[in-house]
TrEMBL record:
Native source species: Mustela putorius furo
UniProt lineage: Eukaryota, Metazoa, Chordata, Craniata, Vertebrata
InterPro entries named in the record: MIC26/MIC27, MIC26/MIC27_animal
Name of the protein: MICOS complex subunit
Family: Belongs to the apolipoprotein O/MICOS complex subunit Mic27 family.
Gene Ontology terms: biological process: cristae formation
């Protein structure tokens, strides 16, 4: 065992030593001239000046280049539109998958309620014949009424939130109308409608 360790340590310790090696020509060999760098290379460098000459474009290359320059604004617009709509589409797909999972594991009684709410919308559409405003108001109103019968807590929250929003919109509208009224009809130069001018 001692011999194996001694043999393994010996070559390893020699690799850590550094030696300087000086080469000297043999005394009986004739003196040669130094070798140039060009002679050492496997490939010789061509002498002379090289110049890059661009080949003339073919008509096909010209038409493809013209087409690319013509389509560049449209492709950039498509890429920008895609980058803007991709997150929306991903969220829509996630919503669809969530709805599908919910419908697969629907609570008991969900589908009959959904049928009644849909039927109420169809009845509202049938009662709204002849008027476009009725077609916009009756089906959602009937569906909302049927849904509020099955889901009263959610209907109360929806009415509260939508009522607050309608109140805010009404205030904004009244402020805008009041400002327009003051600007157009109560100007100092507008004496046409004043009671003193008869």
């Amino acid at each position: 065992m001692f011999k194996v360790i001694q043999r393994a340590v010996g070559p390893a310790s020699l690799s850590l030593l550094t030696f300087k090696v000086y080469a000297s020509p043999k005394k009986d060999s004739p003196h040669k001239a130094s070798v140039k760098v060009n002679e050492l290379s496997l490939y010789s460098v061509p002498e002379g000046q090289s110049k890059y000459v661009e080949e003339p474009r073919t008509p096909l290359e010209e038409s493809i280049s013209h087409l690319r320059h013509y389509c560049e604004p449209y492709t950039s617009w498509c890429q920008e539109t895609y980058s803007q709509t991709k997150p929306k589409m991903q969220s829509l797909v996630q919503w669809g998958l969530g709805s599908y999972d919910y419908l697969q594991n629907a609570p008991p009684g969900f589908f009959p309620r959904l049928g009644v709410i849909g039927f109420a919308g169809i009845v509202g559409l049938l009662l709204a014949r002849g008027s476009k405003i009725k077609k916009l108001v009756y089906p959602p109103g009937f569906m909302g009424l049927a849904a509020s019968l099955y889901y009263p807590q959610q209907a109360i929250v929806f009415v509260q939130v939508s009522g607050e929003k309608l109140y805010v919109w009404g205030l904004r509208g009244s402020i805008v109308i009041e400002d327009l009224w003051k600007e157009n009809f109560q100007k100092p130069g507008n004496v046409k409608n004043s009671p003193g001018n008869k």
